[in-house]
Specification:
Pfam families: MatE. By secondary structure, this protein is an all-alpha fold. The chain contains 19 helices and two strands.
């Protein structure tokens, strides 16, 4: 029987039972003993990596677009490297955090709706997110238009501020690509349609590398050539994914453009804003692409299972992703330490820059471990719909604790960059411990019931008021 490209509600994939929907027809039984744990760990790991593998690959490809441009900029000149680094990390990095955060509201709604079989609502949710993120991009436009005075205001060197400000003007098209790309990504992820995203990202990366070399180095267009190629690469991914969706491959999840997207916008904005605060306050974690893969995968697993009323499976998904993220983080940290003498030369010709990176390697290794676990736990929060509660925690840990500590160590104690980094990392550690505690104390049966209420609410059906998560 044909399904017009739509992910089947209950299907079997060799070696991965029902991976396209909620994972199991019924919730997993209570785990008794180490043998039961190991068996269920293997089963859940297959489902997690089925989602995380392509998500990690896609994230690496997308992150590499900017990283490759930055690498070529380092071979153009020191000022070019500094200008692009500042624009990419401060201007585009902040915008990316906001857009990813605003778009993550879609993970909760689409994931839980798909888990409950309410596939028809996914397209409407994505269109609402487009509207909100497009308006958000317009609001953030002055950040690009007035990047130079803003950078000067925060104490950046004049030469770097002017060069980065010019680069920011060239990168405005990327801002609006973010606004459309991330809702599309969450829409596809909720349905486990992640391989197509990987293919598109891989194609974009190959051509991006080729044309960046051609325009930036061979033709000597410098940063202007890099900006041109980077904008094109991001819009290529948006257009290619939209062609895939419009071709009918998503079945009932996409039934065309609808005026219903303009309803319930304020409620959607509130959830999106909470999501944005939750994610952009820990932007360091999003620089670690493996962690982004875990974040996306576990948010889909938890939202699908809660939507399908499988609280034990959702809870066990949390256990599996934390253990997996920890061991992957340790492996990456070990590799970083082993190659600490080699990798700095990839990013810059300057020996001074290379030495600075080498000095920070031990701290970076610790960051890799912590910042693999924290985004995974944030993915749990997204899947369960806890964005508002976690947003307050993130603000407290990052802005009230982490940044002041970093400034005190960096400037008060004269530890410089390392002191700032230690403070921010300490804030992330505190944040991670709190997320651990919340996951441990959560009543997952109540979360499944709240997911059912949330699905009714967004489908326009009468239901009880959806509260914040009950933590016991």
């Amino acid at each position: 029987m044909e399904n017009n490209g739509e992910a089947p509600l209950l299907t079997s994939t060799p070696g991965l039972k029902n991976a396209h929907f909620t994972g199991d027809v019924e919730d997993i039984p209570p785990i008794k003993g180490i043998t039961d744990f190991c068996v269920q760990f293997g089963v859940e790991s297959k489902k997690l990596w089925y989602l995380a593998g392509p998500a990690i690959f896609t994230s690496i490809c997308q992150y590499s677009l900017g990283a490759i441009t930055q690498t070529f900029a380092g071979h153009v000149g020191t000022l070019d490297l500094a200008a692009f680094s500042v624009e990419n990390s401060v201007i585009a990095g902040f915008s990316l955090g906001i857009m990813v955060g605003m778009g993550s509201a879609l993970e909760t709604l689409c994931g839980q709706a798909f888990g409950a079989g309410q596939v028809d609502m996914l397209g409407t949710y994505m269109q609402r997110s487009w509207i909100i993120l497009f308006v958000t991009a317009l609001i953030m436009l002055p950040l690009y238009l007035f990047a130079t005075p803003l950078l000067l205001l925060i104490g950046q060197k004049e030469s770097i501020s002017y060069a980065a400000g010019k680069m920011a003007l060239w990168m405005i098209p990327q801002l609006f690509a973010y606004a459309f790309n991330y809702p599309i990504a969450k829409f596809l992820q909720a349905q486990s349609k992640i391989m197509v995203m990987s293919y598109i990202a891989a194609v974009a990366l190959v051509f991006h590398t080729l044309f960046s070399w051609l325009f930036m180095l061979k033709l000597e267009w410098g940063l202007w050539g890099g900006a041109l190629v980077l904008n094109f690469s991001w819009w290529f991914m948006v257009v290619a994914q939209m062609i895939y969706i419009l071709s009918g491959t998503c079945g009932r999840a996409w039934s065309g453009f609808s005026w219903a997207a303009f309803t319930n916008l304020w409620e959607f904005v509130k959830l999106s804003f909470a999501s944005a605060i939750m994610l952009c306050t820990n932007i360091v974690g999003w620089a670690i692409m493996v962690a982004i893969g875990f974040n996306a995968a576990v948010s889909v697993r938890v939202s699908n299972e809660l939507g399908a009323a499988h609280p034990r499976t959702a809870k066990f998904s949390v256990v599996v992703v934390v253990i997996s993220a920890f061991f992957v983080g340790v492996l990456l940290a070990i590799l970083l330490v082993i190659f600490r003498h080699q990798y700095p030369a990839i990013f810059a010709d300057s020996l001074e820059v290379q030495q600075a990176v080498y000095t920070l390697t031990p701290l970076l290794a610790a960051c890799l471990i912590i910042n693999n676990i924290q985004p995974a736990l944030s993915g749990v929060a997204i899947g369960a719909g806890w964005q508002a509660v976690i947003a307050y925690i993130n603000i407290a840990c990052y802005y009230i604790f982490g940044i002041p500590l970093g400034l005190a160590l960096g400037f008060g104690a004269n530890f410089g960059v390392m002191g700032i980094w230690i403070g921010m990392l300490t804030g992330t550690v505190v944040q991670t411990l709190i997320l651990f505690w919340i996951c441990y104390r959560t009543n997952w049966d109540k979360e499944a019931s709240m997911a059912e209420d949330r699905i009714r609410q967004w489908a326009g059906q009468p239901e009880e008021v959806v509260d914040q998560p009950k933590i016991y």
